[in-house]
Amino acid sequence: MSTRDDGPPRVYRELLRRVLCGSMVGGTILGDLEEEYQARVVESDGRQAADRWFRMQARRLLMRALYERISTPRTWRKRRSCAMPDERGSGNAVVTDLLGEFRQATRSLSRSPGFAVITLLTLAIGIGANTALFSVVRGVLLEPLPFEDPDELMVVLAAAPAFGDAEFGSPFEVLQEYQESVPLDRSAAYVTYGATLRLGDVAERVRGADVGVGFFTTLGVEPLVGRFPTAEDVRSAPGELAVIGHALWTQYLGADPGVIGRSAEIAERVRTIVAVMPPEVRFPEEGVAGGRGATMVWLPFVPARRSGTLGSWVWSLLVRVPSGVGADDLTRQLEPVAVTLPERYASDNDRVLRDGQYRPVVRPLRQVVTRDLDSLLWTVFGAAWLVLLIAAVNVANLFLVRAETRRPELAVRAALGAGRVRLLREQMAEAVVLALVGGTLGIALAAWATPFLLGAVPGGLPRTYNVRITGEVLAFTVVLSVATAVLFGLIPALRNATPDADGLHAAGRGADASKRRRATRKVLIVAQSALALVLLVGSGLLVRSFWILSKTDPGFETRDLLTFQISPRPDRYPGSRQAAAFHQSFLDRIAAMPGVESVGAINNLPLDETPAMRDFVTEDYSATHADAARLAIYNFASAGYFETMGIALLEGRDFHGTDDVRDRGAVIVSRSVAEQYWPGRTALGERLRPSSQEGVWHTVVGVVEDIRPRELRQAGEPMIYFPFVPPAGDDAWRVSSPVYTVRARDPERLAAAIRDELRAVEPSAPMYLVQTMEWHAERSMARLSFTMLVLLVAGGVALLLGTVGLYGVLSHLVGQRSREIGIRMAIGARPEDVRRMTLLEGGRLIVLGLVLGTAAAVALTRLLTSILYETTPLDPMTFIATAMALLMTGLLASWLPARRASAVDPMRTIRGDA
Known about the structure:
Elements: H1 10-20, H2 24-44, H3 48-71, H4 73-78, H5 91-110, H6 113-142, E1 153-159, E2 167-168, H7 172-181, E3 186-199, E4 202-212, H8 215-219, E5 225-226, H9 231-236, E6 241-244, H10 246-253, E7 263-266, E8 269-276, E9 295-301, E10 316-320, H11 327-344, H12 351-354, E11 359-364, H13 365-370, H14 374-405, H15 407-415, H16 420-455, H17 471-496, H18 503-509, H19 515-550, E12 561-566, H20 576-591, E13 596-602, E14 613-618, E15 630-637, H21 641-645, E16 649-652, E17 665-670, H22 671-677, E18 687-690, E19 698-704, E20 719-723, E21 739-744, H23 747-761, E22 767-772, H24 773-780, H25 782-816, H26 818-826, H27 831-860, H28 876-902, H29 906-911
Parallel strand pairs: 4-9, 6-8, 15-20, 17-19
Antiparallel strand pairs: 1-2, 1-10, 1-11, 3-4, 3-7, 3-10, 5-8, 6-9, 7-8, 12-21, 12-22, 13-21, 14-15, 14-18, 16-19, 17-20, 18-19
């Protein structure tokens, strides 16, 4: 006769009772095991399977107790009647415990390599993207300008609202009016241009600037070598002194400290070098916009007495204002002077003052240097933050799933005396270890990706010399990593710091997790889907804009077209016709080279520099008529230019060699000029002239299609083309450094051959700004393409993380609900019903995320308005397409767990064997 009772095996029950010591939590766990044992006896219709299950659970608990005794003997010695261990101790004990917890966290993660690798990759992507973009934002926007009190520096520009939104320079005489009428502490006028540097055998094109002699003191900088010239120095040697940049000093002069007093030919004049700028000073030109580089030469001058006529609108005024005075304050001081200018210079017949509603515009120097990139960079930085938030949500979901599998372990540890604080610290230690390692990988990823990020902008970014991984960037990454650890680790840790007594019971029967735990994971999935939709909608809007803009016809062909400039010595070609003859001769030499289809030249290439404009009158109106003056862009083009550029000739003919006759000079006009000047009739044979040149008429010999001269985003503008060869005796009509355009099948390879040809005929003439026309077109779309690229990558990462997160959560839910699914199928549910149930659960989460994400996208995509092209921030097609893409991806992620659920064996699941 058996002596055993109706309970579990007696030996294992007694061992557990001794190990758990009768504590409240331990007693609850033992009671749950016995209750589960009795339930299994009834379900399996026998004790054999139930005994086997109880022995397995008891062995697990006993092994865990033995591990606790070996790993923490001091804790076991301190225990009294299985009470909680004393967690107070000395500072050294606390440090030792923390180090031990980090070691234990590392060991625990090493036993779950799949979880650790996925988590680290997710964090590395999120933290790396933020680190890379923060280094760019810090270097371009946040790093202080290398000048004394840079916030006190302002730049005075000009605007003519009647002619458009562009801001430009002013005539030098206008700036003198401001300097004489408004009390300015320190100020100096400046203008930049391309200058030829000749130093020994070197002939290069560099960026130069004419600056008032007070320019250096206004900036508040000190030279690296030498000293800045004073007004007396400049007066004693007018036009003969030069300050060179650090890049020029190191690249061409070997960083020779004895360079002071050395001569160099700069801007076609021999100058004496008197100072070298520090490496960080490159103003007025700071970046590589347009491929024109930073300023390398500053040529100081003492302003002459103000003349009575206006010069070109190219000068800017650098002003240092007192502390506390802003751009609006300085504007209010200048406006009364600006009001008097149209009357004072009425004889100049200048349209900007007379008809353009001229007004001064004051900008902080930082805004001028960064070229209004603030909104662009903060937008992409915000996208990186969204990616990090999505990554943190994804990792939090992974931790919640991991915490579910550890509930029995944590329940045992609590029963063995581990306190709430200890359990919380141990779980947060895992989060901190993952975050710090992920942050380290993120820094490596940022260091690798930042050069590619900067190279993604065809026109470049200003101040890129400041973009690097600094101590500030490292501190930002550390703080970001710790904050991310708190974000994704705190919720699961708090949930499991006080394990409930049913931890073993739930795990033993394979029952569902609590509704609260499931709800938390579902909320995270919804949040992840909503954030992903915001990024996808933003990138979708930019892709749509980019597609429309890339398909926009600029009025010319960009493929297979090489562009460059040549600057011959003016003393070798002193007259305008001699210079034109040299360029025409070199055009002929290029045309004869193998592989060249056609060649041409223009003084201002489309999509490159800001074109020149002036007003013209026709014979239909007198020069004083109210509608007589019309503003148009004017250019000087060679024969063959329109064919080379692919600009359609609508009427008439191209230029040829007899178009330089002064009294009946030929011009070619664009379609909009013909329609505006001579509506309803042909423009061929009509005459026009600049409004300020009495009696100098030009005859229209051809009409060409409009082009987009400034950027692809702007519509075609009225343009008038004059012959490349000037009229006889007119030396003011000089095109000294035109832009060559060469159409060939392999234009980039042709550049080296053209350079060799130039050395053979004119070795002292530099060939510079060698680019393809496709590069200029890409640079015109740089702001849009850069933002699109970043948001597209961010959206793709968000979609991937969201898909992985949804798949992981649904897979875990299917595993937890396998017993329920087995019961459903045992009582008649079909596999397709189970699949539908799982798909609907995933679909509901995605749809709720789509609703919330759409509302957020409606609010946030308005920030992209200034970047979009012919696309509204609420474009319905983009919203629908991105929402459908996210929904289909989510359903695909739900399909695999659904198939797994429908494959559950009902009998094995109910018996507990599955």
